[in-house]
Specification:
With about 210 residues, this protein is of the alpha+beta class. The chain folds into two domains: about 40 residues; about 150 residues, Glucose Permease (Domain IIA) (Distorted Sandwich), CATH 2.70.70. Helix content is about 20%, strand content about 35%. The protein contains three helices and 14 strands. Helix 1 runs antiparallel to helix 2.
Length: about 210
């Protein structure tokens, strides 16, 4: 479990005990106990088996694939996979490939519904680029949603991460986008549900990912 779960959960349990003690009625403790249970469940962090193999790109988060599209960027054509994370999904984020973090850039923005395509560019987000074997780069974005108000990323530029490694989280509903080279072969389609670190999103050209 993520540390935040213990902080929220134990704090609310303490509130429940205090309310019951102060009022003498157990009914006053029901609401904070239920909220504590929700937070302990929301911040769960299950173990995942990371697929092994050359060129595999795994999902950075749990959720629903809402878009797979070719886009133009200043660095050339890319493919973008968008994944929507509801409040019922695991919100721990994972590295899509292994390699060196060549860029970590936080950008303030709006809090549009994460299902809205405009949220990819207009919402608060953290943009991370990983350079894998052979110099191939994969970028993923942690994008805040309608309810999300905090993006957490635990690494800095220049650090090395492994495929599927925990790297951060987004609190309370969000979206993650993955930008891939134009010649990557997608392994998912719109409407599929994926799991962070366990689901393969795409395969890069030979030697393109650790």
């Amino acid at each position: 479990m993520v540390r935040d779960g213990y902080i929220y959960g134990l704090s609310l349990l303490a509130v429940a005990v205090a309310l019951v003690w102060a009022t003498g009625g157990w009914a006053w403790g029901i609401a904070p106990v239920l909220l504590a249970a929700f937070f302990l469940w929301f911040f769960r962090d299950p173990q995942r088996t990371v697929p092994a193999g050359p060129g595999l790109v795994v999902s950075p988060g749990d959720g629903l694939v809402t878009e797979t599209v070719s886009i133009s960027t200043p660095d050339g054509p890319r493919q973008r996979i968008s994944i929507f994370l509801s409040v019922f999904d695991v919100h721990v984020n994972r590295a899509p490939i292994g390699g060196v973090l060549t860029a970590v850039r936080y950008r303030k923005g709006l809090y549009l519904n994460a299902m809205n395509p405009a949220s990819a560019d207009r919402n608060e987000q953290n943009i991370v680029t990983v350079r894998g074997e052979g110099g191939v780069e994969v970028t993923f974005k942690q994008i805040a949603g309608l309810l999300a108000r905090r993006i957490v990323f635990n690494h800095r530029e220049g650090e090395t991460v492994e495929r599927g490694q925990r790297v951060g989280l987004i609190k309370f509903g969000s979206r993650v986008d993955v930008l891939l080279p134009a010649d990557a072969v997608l392994r998912v389609k719109v409407g599929e549900r994926v799991k962070g670190a366990a689901s393969v999103l795409a395969v890069l050209p030979a030697g393109g990912a650790l």
